[in-house]
Structures are given as C-alpha cells and as structure tokens.
Amino acid sequence: MPTPKEKEETQRMKALRRELEEKLEDQLPPEMIASEPIRVETQALNTDEVLDPAQAKQVVEAMLFASSKPLAVADIRKVVKSLTPGQIGGILSDLRAEYASTGRSFELLEIANGYEIATKKEFAPWIMRLELQRKIKQVTQSALETLSILAYKQPVTRAEIEELRGVDASGVLNTLAERNFIRIVGKKEVPGRPFLYGTTEKFLEHFGLRSIEDLPNIDEIKTLVENSVKKEDLLGTQKIVDIPQEDPAAAPEAGAELSPEPAGETVQEPEDETVQEPEDETVQDSAGETVQAGPEGAPDEASEERE
C-alpha cells in the first residue's frame, strides 16, 4: 500500500510529465504530432543509490551539460545524495583537466558560485553569428546604461540613477527586474524610504562573472575609451554649418559703412511749433442773451449771470 508521501510524489510526477508533453506539442510542427500525441516516459530514481566513480562522473557531467544555469556543489548534492561535497569537487576537477587535455572546444568554468560548461572564447565569432540568426531580443541601449550604473554603484535608488542619466528610469528598471537582472535589496534610510536595487546571480551568469568584484575597473575603461576614440569624436565637436570668419582688417571699414551720417555735419532739429489756442467765441442763447464761450466752446461763468 503506497504511503501518502509516495502518492503525492506520483501525482507530482504526472503533472510534470503532462507539462513536458504540452511544451513539446507547442514547440513541434503540427505535421509531426498529427499521427499520435506526444508522450513522455519517466522512471523512478533512487537518489541514495551508490554510484561507481565512472557512473558518478557521467551523471555530474550530464547535469552540467543540461543545466541552463551554473550548478553549485550543493545543487549537485541534492540530486546525487550518495556523493559527498569532496567527491563532487574531485569529479569537477577531473572534468576540467580532461577537457583541457583533450583539446575540447568547451571548458568547465566557475561562475556565480557555481560551475558551468561553456565554449571557449576563440569560438565566439561563430556562436555570435548563430545567435544573430536566431534573432534573440537584445537589451536596449538605455537598459545597458542603467544596468552599468547600477552594477558599479549598487545598492542605488531609482532617483540616483535618474540623476546620473538625466531621464526617467522606472520603465527600464521594471524591464530589468522582469528579466531577473536586478532585484530590490532593501530600502534607503531617508524620507520616503525608496527601494535600493542591486544585481542578481543571473547578471553574473549573463556577463560571465564570478562575482561583482570581477567587473572592469572604471580607470581601465576610461583608458580604453581614450585610446580607441579621439577626443573630438567623443565630445562631438564636428561643425554642422561653416560660419565665415570676418577679416579683422576690414572691420573698421564695415563699421564706417554702417554709419548713415557723414562725419563733421550737424543735424538740425525741427523748431518748436507754437500751439495757438482758439479765440473765444460769442454765442447767443435761446433767450437772446449773449454768452461768451471759452476755448473748449463752453460758456463763460461770468457771462452766465443773468440780471
């Protein structure tokens, strides 16, 4: 009679098998799966089984080859419980020496606190061409700039990144977090307590670094840039429009031509004009009285008095 733990393990394996079948059906063309559905067969594995040295070496090598990320000794130990950490370390050393002595195109590297089988650097051009043919989505320039600032100044807040870049960085940070290149490592003890961001293990794995200390030194980068790019090209001092330069000897003549008045002549100002006020007018009202009008045509107060 199976125990509850065994039943749970069986159900979990069935769910995993069905998930693998669905993924294979999605990736394979329809004509390949039209005849019969995809079925994945699994078999029980005794993790406590003692392996002979040759078999243990093959198992560890297969795990390194199939893994999509570097494997630590503890990760291998969880799968192959019969091996001790010392034995696993010995197998890794043997694999590294074997790859080096047989002239393989790949090698065993220690990356991000784990071990990974990777191709050698001299084969990078061919692999790069393969990657370009697959049209893998590349990280944008703004994301690379943000990631560089964060890698060298971490832990850092979004406001500090925006201050250095001069543009909003919220969208780029969300993209990098979704791709698991960065993560929130805490909060800064300032008003508002903004999030502090730092890099992840995937960042080290992606750029082939063992730790964050393996990043190139800033002074080394400056030297490389200065030696490879001219200062004029770096600062962008190329002239877009040529502006003609004035001849210093012709400057006084040009100044003389701008003056509209010949030298030595006196400019006469117009004479003051005398404004004559209108004379008083005599107006008779309706009663036959004589009324003296002022300058504005208004009746004189003295003439308004009636007897």
Please give a structural write-up.
The protein has 307 residues and is mainly α. It has 3 domains: 1-44; 45-136, Arc Repressor Mutant, subunit A (Orthogonal Bundle); 141-226, Winged helix-like DNA-binding domain superfamily/Winged helix DNA-binding domain (Arc Repressor Mutant, subunit A, Orthogonal Bundle), CATH 1.10.10. Helix content is 44%, strand content 10%. The chain contains 13 helices and 6 strands. The protein has helices at residues 4-27, 30-33, 53-66, 73-79, 85-101, 124-133, 141-153, 158-165, 170-178, 201-206, 218-228, 231-235, 251-258, and strands spanning 106-111, 114-119, 182-187, 195-199, 281-284, 290-293. The strands form 3 sheets. Strands 1-2 form a two-stranded antiparallel ribbon. The protein has a two-stranded antiparallel sheet with strand order 3-4. A two-stranded antiparallel ribbon has the order 5-6. Helix 3 crosses helix 5 (85-101). It is globular and about 65 Å long. Mean pLDDT is 75; it is low at 254-267, 293-299 and 301-307.
